[in-house]
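REQUEST FORM: STRUCTURE PREDICTION
Request ID: SP-0412
Submitted by: Lab K.M.
Chain count: 1
Length (residues): 135
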Amino acid sequence: MTAVLRPVRIARPAVAGQQALPTTQRATFGVLGLLAMIAFFVGLMVLANFHVVVVGDQFEFDRLERRFEDGLERAQVLRNEVAQLENPDRILRVAEGRLGMVPPTERLQLAVVLPDVVGGGLSAPVGDPFAGGNR
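STATUS: Completed
RESULT:
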C-alpha cells in the first residue's frame, strides 16, 4: 500500500478577536454579499425610475393646470364680451346707426288672449285654412 500525500497545511496565527470562518461559510457570505449589492443597485434603479415617472407626471399636471387657468381666463373674457354685446343701449345704438332703424312714435300694447276664458278665446277659422286659395 502506498500512502496518499497531501499538502501540509500551515496554520496562520489568528488575529486578536477574529475567528477564522470555515471555507463554506466564507463562500456563502460572498454570494449573499453579492446578492445584497445587486439588490441594492436594483433598488436604486427602481427608485430612479419612479422619480422620473413622478417628475414627468408633475410636468404633465402643471401643463394641464396652465391650460385650465387659461381656459378660465378665456371664459371670463367671453362672459364680459357677451355682457357687452347683450347691453340694450348698445343694441339700440347699432339698430339706429348701422341698420337705420328708428324707435316708433307710439307703442301698441296687444291684449293677451287666454284660451281658458269662456268667450275670450279666438273663434275657429272658417273653412280649411290650409287650402290653397287665391289671395
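NOTES: Residues 23-97 form one domain.
Reviewed by: T.R.
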